Amino acid sequence: MKIEHLISTMHQADAAFLQEIKCVEDVLVVNQTNIERTDEQVTSDGKRLRMISTEERGLSNSRNMLLKNAAGDIAILGDDDLIYLDGYLDKIQKAYQEHPDADIIAFSFTESLTQNTRRQFKTARKLNIFTISKVASVELTFRTKPISDADIFFCPLLGLGAKYGACEENAFLADALRAGLTIWYVPETICYLRPDPPGRMKWQQGFNEDYFVKRGACFYRIYRKAFALFSIAFILLKKRSIFRDVPIVSAWKWMCEGRKLYQKDEEEQECS
């Protein structure tokens, strides 16, 4: 079982930043910068490091380039602001041995070493269309062959740097489920986030019209015909926390607007 990290980053001069991430396996990096170049090296401990520098922009585009160039049997999806914990590789290998039917396994991460781990469930379980919504991209690992065979990629209309912001990982998981792939969640912590750097992008600022339009677009891309069901459930579940200053009717109207905008964009850009 060959494992490889797939890491998205921007404006790196070289691969030195990987030392902070503490990867102990092969690494493929897509570095969105101002040149087009591919570099490769083998470290003294036999680790293969590849960096593809590109002028292309957008997180989903970066991850799609990673998918197309992946060389491992198992991929660990990551960003440049992570630090992997001691023993993370053993946890991943053990999970795939215990769940041989898994095409994708989501793990857990923590915001810092001093905070509690972000866990969806206390025990391992299969995920479905109802339970993929809280999975973060940095929790994802997957077998590369089933993903490639099913021709699954990240939607370039979603993700940081794209028109509709986040949720690209949830659309990716929804596509995997529709393709008949099996997704497991294992409550083992594999990494934590470094302190929030000044340049870290955020996909939305506050709960306003822009937020709900983007959320509507994301919900349509993920849930398709069940858009109304999941959108109404989202509004009802969140009404006490985010609808104090935003009328529920307005939120629903903006989410429907987001759906229409996404449908129009999807007709012009292949993203299905």
TrEMBL record:
Record's keyword terms, sorted: Transferase
Descriptive protein name: Glycosyl transferase family 2
Domain of life: Bacteria
Signal peptide: none
Keyword Lipid biosynthesis on entry: no
Domain Glycosyltransferase 2-like, first and last residues per copy: 26-124
Entry GO MF terms: transferase activity
Classification lineage: Bacteria, Bacillati, Bacillota, Clostridia, Lachnospirales
CDD domains linked: Glyco_tranf_GTA_type
Keyword Transferase: yes
